[in-house]
Amino acid sequence: MPHSVFEKISIEQILLLEADPVRILTNLSIRDKKKYELRHIELLLEEERQAAEEISRKCSCRLHIHQMAFDESDLQKCCKILNEEVQTV
């Protein structure tokens, strides 16, 4: 998606969900029945973070980064992060 889209929709915050690259690789391999290279996953993670940081700067909005645990705590933690930010505005 072009970065200009984010400027047009006036976002207030970004929540970037990240995970361990080995976990991502395992999940993708199971889901897609394909073999992916770990280095490609690592590069994609780096690019996603850089894009989120750039969009955050351009839109002057807060960037939150959550490391996924893939359990019931993820939803609670993400809601808490976003709600705390909304309450401080």
Low-confidence stretches are none
Biggest sheet details: 2 strands, parallel
- CA gyration radius, whole angstroms: 15 Å
Bin the strand percentage: 5-15%
Give the termini separation.
27 Å
Mean model confidence by pLDDT: 91
- Strand order in space, largest sheet: 1-2
Q: What structural category characterises the helix and strand content?
A: alpha+beta
What is the total tally of β strands?
2
Helicity level: 55-70%
Descriptive overview:
The structure is a single chain. This protein is 63% helix and 13% strand. It is α+β, with helices and mostly antiparallel strands and 89 residues long. The radius of gyration is 15 Å and the shape is globular. The model has no long low-confidence stretch (mean pLDDT 91).
Detail the topology: elements first, then pairings.
Elements: H1 3-8, E1 13-18, H2 21-32, H3 38-59, E2 62-67, H4 73-88
Parallel strand pairs: 1-2
Helix pairs in contact: 2-3
Task: Give a brief description.
The chain has 89 residues and is of the alpha+beta class. 63% of the residues lie in helices and 13% in strands. The chain contains four helices and two strands; from the N terminus they run αβααβα.
